[in-house]
Design a protein that fits this description.
α1 packs across α2. By secondary structure, the chain is of the alpha+beta class. A hairpin with a 5-residue loop joins β5 and β6. The protein has 7 helices and 30 strands. It folds into 3 domains: about 80 residues; about 80 residues, no CATH class; about 150 residues, Galactose-binding domain-like (Jelly Rolls, Sandwich), CATH 2.60.120.260. It is about 15% helix and about 30% strand. Strands 14, 15, 17, 20, 21 and 23 form a 6-stranded antiparallel β-sheet that branches. It has a 5-stranded antiparallel β-sheet with strand order 13-16-22-18-19. Strands 2-9-5-6 form a 4-stranded antiparallel β-sheet, with no helix packed on it.
């Protein structure tokens, strides 16, 4: 996907306002001055062309006001400003009539203003989310969340050395790398972490099903395990050691839940000191009818698909048919619309191309216009007074000429799912009896 940096968008926004000067100093300044003899080409000789403007130190991002009087000396090419980190010799700086902070805020707001509304087209971030699995009770099942040497939601068995593997994984961007001594691994007690499931008496007699993908270079090393009392284990098959991932057709456990269970702990454990890897480890008991939607979706998802083949987590994915049901253990794929990124650094990016940037910047200019009218100086208000109608016309024209993206609506022709919400979240509900 094409992206543009904030610093480039700042330049293009400023240029559209005829408010852009990017220079390089010709002498060493101080905490309150910058020196650039090239500024003489902008000055008419009256020593005040940039008084009360703003200077931005490109290296640090600091923005300071130029003195309202005696802010520029033509003879030496020196600008005097409020104190900041010194801009030395041969250093980049910018001059702005309008406060660059307002411009940065306008770029942030443009991401929101561009989002389609009603029948209006706009710009958005196309989303594809595959973080939910049908009926799954294991959290962080794909090992994408990792901090301080541990996988979120998982406990250590023994004292393993844990890292995310970007080499050995079958879905997403990471797998779990389990290294260290023999007889170590990671575990999760489903009584305390699985979607609030804590009533073991209702599960007694039912079957817990666990599936996973494992990788090892030595035989009889890594396997799946389940315990209901902390001492008696039901074990899955060991990996063959063929230096490849083996999937749920090999690594699975189906075990009846006993009446006297005191825990429901699933684990991935290795028996040798050789590192091994795991990914897409899931478990389920009963159908789950409600799923919390990812917060990145600003609207209801356009489509809900499910993994077609158990041994192909990366696709294909297909709609759930009207006469079918979500299949336990299969990954769900949501597609829809999210907000364009809101960069807070010069190097931060927005997911637009150069053509879409014109629409994005027109929306930013509209917001900047309103901000200046509310709090800007008289000089700034007079400077932009005639531009607002032009931006409105540009926006309307670009919404009709292919610059923008079509607004997407939730679409479930089979009547399998619907979306509901409350004050905190939105939920996917499967409407078929399961």
């Amino acid at each position: 996907m094409a992206t543009l940096t904030r610093v480039l968008l700042l330049q293009r926004l400023s240029e559209s306002w005829d408010d852009w000067w990017a220079g390089t100093t010709t002498g060493a300044g101080s905490a309150t001055t910058i020196v650039d003899t090239a500024l003489a080409q902008l000055d008419g000789g009256d020593n005040d062309f940039c008084n009360n403007w703003y200077v931005r130190n490109v290296a640090t991002g600091q923005i300071r006001r130029i003195l309202p009087t005696a802010g520029y000396a033509t003879a030496t090419g020196t600008i005097t400003h409020a104190s900041m980190t010194a801009v030395g010799n041969a250093a980049a700086y910018e001059l702005h009539r309008i406060n660059p902070t307002l411009k940065h805020n306008a770029l942030l707001r443009a991401s929101v203003l561009c989002f389609p509304g009603g029948n209006r087209h706009g710009l958005y971030l196309p989303l594809r989310d595959e973080t939910l699995v049908v009926d799954n009770l294991i959290s962080n099942w794909d090992f994408e969340t990792f901090a301080a040497g541990a996988f979120t939601g998982w406990d250590s068995v023994g004292a393993p050395t844990l890292t995310q593997s970007t080499t050995y994984f079958v879905h997403g961007s990471n797998g779990a790398n389990i290294a260290g001594a023999a007889s170590t691994g990671i575990s999760q007690n489903l009584l305390t972490v699985a979607n609030g499931f804590a009533r073991i008496d209702q599960a007694a007699g039912k079957t817990l099903r666990m599936r996973g993908w494992l990788h090892a270079t030595d035989a009889s090393n890594i396997r799946l395990r389940v315990t209901f009392d902390g001492s008696t284990y039901t074990n899955g098959a060991y990996h063959s050691g063929d230096d490849d991932f083996e999937g749920p057709g090999v690594h699975y456990i189906n075990v009846a839940i006993p009446v006297n269970a005191t825990q429901m702990t699933v684990s991935i454990e290795k028996s040798t000191a050789v590192a091994a890897q795991a990914d897409v480890v899931v478990a389920w008991i009963d159908p789950v009818h409600r799923y919390t939607l990812p917060t990145s979706f600003l609207r209801d998802p356009f489509a809900v698909l499910q993994q077609v083949y158990e041994d192909q987590p990366n696709g294909p994915y297909a709609p759930i048919t009207g006469y079918g049901k979500p299949i336990a253990g299969r990954i769900l794929r949501f597609t829809g619309m999210g907000l364009l990124s809101q960069p807070t650094t010069d190097a931060g990016t927005v997911e637009i191309d150069t053509n879409q940037a014109e629409y994005f910047l027109a929306q930013a200019s509209q917001w900047l216009y309103r901000a200046i009218l509310q709090g800007g100086s008289q000089q700034e208000r007079e400077y932009i007074a005639t531009r607002r109608q032009e931006w409105q016309q540009d926006i309307a024209q670009m919404e009709q000429t292919g610059t923008t993206m079509i607004n997407l609506a939730a679409h479930d022709p089979m009547g399998v799912w619907k979306i509901e919400g409350d004050s905190t979240s939105r939920y996917l509900l499967f409407q078929q009896g399961r």
